[in-house]
Amino acid sequence: MEKIDLEAMGQRAAKVKYELQRLPEKRKNEVLSEAAEQLAADTEIILEENGKDIHRAEENGMHPGMIDRLRLTEGRIAAMAEGLRQIAGLKDPVGEVLETFVRPNGLRIRKTRVPLGVIGIIYESRPNVTADAFGLCFKAGNAVILKGGSDALLSNMAVTASVRKALGHSKVSEDAIQLIESTDREVASRFMRLNQYVDVLIPRGGAGLIRSVVENSTVPVIETGTGNCHIYVDEYADLEKALPIILNAKTQRIGVCNACESLVIHEAVKARFLPELARALQEAKVEMRGDEQVCALVEEAKAATEEDYGTEYLDYVLSMKVVSDLDEAIAHINKYNTKHSEAIITENKENAERFLNEVDAACVYVNASTRFTDGFEFGFGAEIGISTQKLHARGPMGLKELTSYKYRIEGNGQIRH
Amino acid sequence: MEKIDLEAMGQRAAKVKYELQRLPEKRKNEVLSEAAEQLAADTEIILEENGKDIHRAEENGMHPGMIDRLRLTEGRIAAMAEGLRQIAGLKDPVGEVLETFVRPNGLRIRKTRVPLGVIGIIYESRPNVTADAFGLCFKAGNAVILKGGSDALLSNMAVTASVRKALGHSKVSEDAIQLIESTDREVASRFMRLNQYVDVLIPRGGAGLIRSVVENSTVPVIETGTGNCHIYVDEYADLEKALPIILNAKTQRIGVCNACESLVIHEAVKARFLPELARALQEAKVEMRGDEQVCALVEEAKAATEEDYGTEYLDYVLSMKVVSDLDEAIAHINKYNTKHSEAIITENKENAERFLNEVDAACVYVNASTRFTDGFEFGFGAEIGISTQKLHARGPMGLKELTSYKYRIEGNGQIRH
Predict the structure, then answer these.
(1) How many CB pairs under 8 A join A and B?
(2) For residues B243 and B279, is the Cβ–Cβ distance under 8 A?
(3) Which end of chain A is more exposed for a tag (fewer CB within 10 A), N or C?
(4) Element (H, E) at A240
(5) Which of A211, A390, A394, A417 has the most B C-beta neighbours within 10 Å, making it the best mutation to test the interface with B?
(6) Minimal Cα distance from B371: which residue of A?
(7) Does the beta-carbon distance from A377 to B199 stay under 8 Å?
(8) Which residues in A lie closer than 8 A to residue B367 (C-beta atoms)?
(9) Which of A95, A92, A97 is nearest to A108 (CA)?
């Protein structure tokens, strides 16, 4: 494979960003619809290229779960196309006036939403991210440079080629989407230092990928971190609510970042609640790991280690701890959580308020499942990821989170004294 | 000097941040007033310590301009105290509800402003930053860890000790401000990788410092960059407005990031405008460096090199270029600017609109001096710096820019289907 000229790719992206910033919403929606049609039309070639990726992965002995992530089907390609059509239906965030103020000297200042410019996405082996990430970045007026997992290179190339064809048909520069066609780690490292051209990097994938990007990138990063999410069953909990919420948050989908990984229970309700909860969790095949108080009440529970409290299992496992008051619950959660999603079950307004205020997380819940931390569930209509950092965007990120702002200042000759 | 335990400092900051998040506005304002009084009361000891820093700097042959930055006087300490009192008068941003939405399933979601948590500030030799940065971070509910320039170590220690005394008197944890008492570069490097405890790093200083932080930090950084600011004199400019704006932006204060460094002039007005402008600039002792067309009309102008167009002079020097249309002006500015502040002088609404839309900068002006890019001039009442990146905050940063948000979600038993 020839040497990747990242500099040239950066220059092309930086050039096309000005074109995209000016593109009216109607044109952007046309491109997205065109891309959806093109993906459908190219289904056969995409499946063929994906087949080669799958074949190589199988030869390399890839885990079946990973192969499933890598695999495209007619249905999955149709879903990618449908995703682009849905993005076309979302409101364009660009141009929104966020604030207007007039200064005593007559200067009129308008804080206005603008695209970020060039967004870099580094992701693992799901080829559908290629179309999704393009759609969201493009609708928010950004050029995108993608670096997918090496296992999915041919699939990603096929999807990218299809989208570029659609851009060409729509008379928009094809460089609105560029794929780094390399499986070389050194190229990824250089990509993470392309500050001159790339305004932000968003890693999408497991903890290892995200850590590597945070460690090595000099381009600003939006960290989409892991979720060690807790549910706290308060002294004043309605236990009729607690049980279904816990079961939902733990078992409705185990492999996702907003699933519940740890339970914190007030000692006043432990005797009433734990046996019933344990039966339900056992039925759902959830392994319980608890502290001494839990183990004393739940025969099936294993002893939890310090490490358990800090682990995002993404599995049918739940750590459990009994606390003597709300302070201890909040301190425990703030110590072990990953600032993602945390819930309290309580009918006591004061305790609810304290939990909402004092627990440090992107999303804090009262009497609801942590599984709602999601761009679609929040009504954003889309999601590029869930941020667990505090800069720029926190929690589910939709189109607005893929924008910046600029100050537009109009005067009539003002000078500074 | 003993080894600095950054880990322990981080832990203390992370602990105190929960206390600060809950501190009511009234208490915060009391602390700020108390700190102002304490600084005044400690003037003598601060001046004494500052005198030692000055003495050492003089022995080391430091440039007089740098020594002036380092020097504290009774007046400067009084100004630091007054700065803290002004911050006490600003509205507390914490707790503001930014958005409320109710989902079809009844979940009520409130996007609410919260402190960032722990802010790290890395700065050079102005000891007044110590009090300023504390004041702003504290009012926005954040703990701050400071790393000042080695030349100012004793001054910074004296200011920090004074503020900590005030915190103690006010029964607030003194660790709301911590100073890294080290002149060791290795300690600075470790500070930039303290991701577990520090939510954001803000470098304040010259281009070299900022580049070093961007290059080496794994903690998210808000880049406060340089300003290679342009003024474009359009074909439809009111030249009566253009002249005072250019003089103001170039000469009112030369060493600041929002000063004008480069002029772009439409060829249709060059013959009418350049001779008059040149006279005025000469009178103001501004050296002119222009392209061929400028040099043909202005005898005193030297030939500008490619490097000139990319230089932030911070001096009585101005680069100048003639263009044949607005497109060329915008392309030139987008090529050479540092995304800080750019102005167009025009009476043509369409050209103004295009300039505002298409020039990529934090602040874009019509018929006003670029010198207004400033937190105080914008009415923020304060400024921690001017961001030239697009993530989180762009342009002047006041108290709001030192906050994040969280989603508070209230339900009555909702689970996800």
Answers:
(1) 197
(2) no
(3) C
(4) helix A239-251
(5) A390
(6) A416
(7) no
(8) 410-414
(9) A97
Phi/psi at A392 (5° precision): 75, -65
Nearest chain B CA: its distance from A293 CA (Å): 26
CB-based contact B362 A407, cutoff 8 Å: yes
Chain B residue nearest residue A390, CA to CA: B404
Q: How far apart are CA A60 and CA A341, in angstroms?
A: 37
H or E element: which one contains A306?
helix A306-309
Which A residues in the span 106-135 are in contact with B, Cβ-Cβ below 8 Å? 107, 109, 116-117
* Rounded alpha-carbon distances, angstroms, from residue B4 to A313, B9, B100, B144, B181: 36, 9, 45, 16, 7
Contact B204, B124 (CB under 8 A): yes
Amino acid letter for position A289: R
Q: What are the backbone angles phi and psi of residue A114, rounded to the nearest 5°?
A: -130, 160
Residue entry with tokens 């099936």: A300
Is A51 near chain B, with CB under 8 Å? no
Whether this model's ipTM surpasses 0.90 comes out as yes
* Predicted structure pTM score: 0.93
CB A371 within 8 A of CB A249: yes
The parts of chain A modelled with pLDDT lower than 70 are 1-2
In this predicted structure, what is the pLDDT of residue A59?
A: 96
> For residue B2, what pLDDT is reported?
56
Residue B1 has pLDDT above 70, yes or no: no
> Hey, which residues does B111 pair with through a beta bridge?
B99, B407
For residue B405, the chain A residues in CB contact (below 8 A) are 394
3-state secondary structure of B161: helix
Are B390 and A402 in contact, with CB atoms under 8 Å apart?
Answer: no
pLDDT, one tens digit per residue, over B193-209 is 999 999 999 999 888 89
Residue A397 near residue A385 (C-beta atoms within 8 A): yes
Shortest Cα–Cα distance, B335 to chain A (Å) = 10
What does the alpha-carbon distance between residue A212 and residue A215 come to, in Å, rounded to a whole number?
Answer: 5
Cα distances from A387 to residues A138, A226, A259, A268, B192, in angstroms, run 20, 9, 15, 35, 21
- Beta-ladder partners of A38: none
B381 backbone φψ class: left, alpha, beta (φ>0; ψ -120 to 50) = left
All residues at 6 or more sequence positions from B237 whose CB lies less than 8 Å from its CB, including other chains = B266, B269, B273, B345, B346, B347
Other CB atoms closer than 10 Å to residue B11's CB: what's the count? Answer: 14
pLDDT for the residue A111: 98
